[in-house]
Amino acid sequence: MAATIELKYFNTFLLKKVTKHDKFYGWWPNVTPAKNQADATVSFPGDAYIDGDVYKQGNFYVEEARIRGGFNNTSVDFGVKAYITETDDEQDDLNSGLIHSGIYNSRTGINNTNQFSVGESITRTLDPADGSIQKLYAEDTNLIVLQEDKSQRVLIDKDTIYTAEGGTQTQAGKQVLGQVIPYLGQYGISKNPESFAVYGGRKYYADRSRNAILRLSRDGITEISQYGMFDFFRDNLAALSDKFQIYSITSTSVAGTGLTFDITTNGDLVEPGMQIHVNGNDTGFIVDSISYNGVNDWTITASGSLTVTTSTSFVKYVKDKVIGGWDIHNKNYVVSMQKAIADTYNTTSFEDGSNAWISLYSYSPNFADSLKNNYYTFKNGGLWKHYDNNTTSTRANFYGVQYKSNITFIFNPQPSITKNFQTIAYEGSNGWEVESFISDFEGLDYINNNYQDYSDSTNKIYSYLEGRYDSANPPNTGIAATTQPFFQAGFDRKENKYVANLVSASVVRPNEVIYGNQISGIKGYFATVKISTDTVTDVGGLKELFAASTNFVPSSY
């Protein structure tokens, strides 16, 4: 018996075609870098993150019978098909242009956010010489636009007119994106939009290309990195790169088959989303989640079934970052300059009240910001609340790691006189130790075919409890010394002040008669001192340091 089958016709629409593969720097794994796709000698993977761009292969299609895919909309019928031939079919990246869609009004049900009519003035092009647009921030009726090398604002629904007297006025404009008004100075945000933070009427961000940290307010752009920290930011920002790099973590001990397996080394460095490579080859699977089970034991769940070996590595594409955030607890702008491959960082904070950089921190967040009077940071998918005083022993503890707080300063009394520094004293809490006490360099000598520069230094000075000892326990055993009488190898407490002698640990100089621990103290014009908390006295508890002083005499050398 014959049957008649009715088939509906569906049109195939080309949504996106990607053919551009420039800015080529290299592919994983072990491929000689080429300039573009045609020069490469390797079959390309599906995705590759190179120089900040995502390269995908193939075209994207969808089958649809009705216009816009709307219910009961007009159906696309058979008929004449229009073709157009393009000599240059590459995709254009208008990275310095702005475009807006139709309006959206939830109250009336109007939603034209998917409409971009070329017959209307919905675009605004900025100077491409200033680089790509990296950050947009809407403020009242202005749109702040930060390009790589320029900071400016675009008026929204209004224009500026200039009066005969030289003043300015604003009036309603016909265009949504009105006049572009640049801020004074050739400053941008480079390729670090993650450095942007805002509080009140002030915005903060980094211009890595100019080794500058900037503050944008009503009085324009201020280069706040000039406030006593120019060389610090010059060195650290110049060391960062805006290129994506391959970051590989290899575990020397991996076991398991299937979706879940255990590793016993470097598990703290593995993050969700990392690719899994076995014997140097991409398995096509990624890390879904990771949990810590105890000392040197992590369980990894992967998005696929595979057999892992001892040569398993976890790969991701990383970029150096400048993370910025507003610390609402202390009213500070916090900026963290992070090198991805070396896994090194410098985190510091700026205070508007004193126009100064006030502190360095021992944490490197993935993201930082404030919400409802609390300061939060994100690290490896976890949310951390700072300044939490509800629990004990939490100070200087970041992301589960206990750090030592430290302060570095300089003793420089009577600068033109060579001195012998003999003692050191401080006023404050118990639990502070002197990690280093070093004098200035004395000059360059050429000895035994080598250049040598000398400076005096002292032994480490233990804190009050750290240096306590008795007949059964040597120094540096903390409160373990319990047998009277006690002796002090470091700071001793006298009249609520902690004092200690300086014991020289200097190396022998040529023609030096008295040296090393035979000298009382150390000599020099000035001394750089680093004081830090110890590891035995109420670890994580409150430590205060009010003042530090030294006793010295003019040198007789």
Q: What this model shows, in words?
A:
This protein has 557 residues and is an all-beta fold. Helix content is 2%, strand content 45%. A hairpin with a 1-residue loop joins strand 18 (254-255) and strand 19. The radius of gyration is 32 Å and the shape is elongated.
List keywords for this structure.
mainly beta, Elongation Factor Tu (Ef-tu), domain 3
Shape: elongated
Which structural category do the helix and sheet elements fall into?
mainly beta
User: How many strands in all?
Assistant: 44
Poorly predicted regions are 20-56
What is the straight-line distance between the termini? 120 Å
Count of discrete alpha- or pi-helical segments spanning 4 or more residues: 1
Biggest sheet features: 7 strands, antiparallel
Work out the oligomeric state of the chains in this entry.
single chain
Domains counted in the coordinates: how many? 4
Task: Provide mean pLDDT, rounded.
Answer: 79
What is the beta-strand fraction? Answer: over 45%
Radius of gyration (CA) equals: 32 Å
Major β-sheet strand ordering: 17-23-20-21-22-19-18
Helix content: under 10%
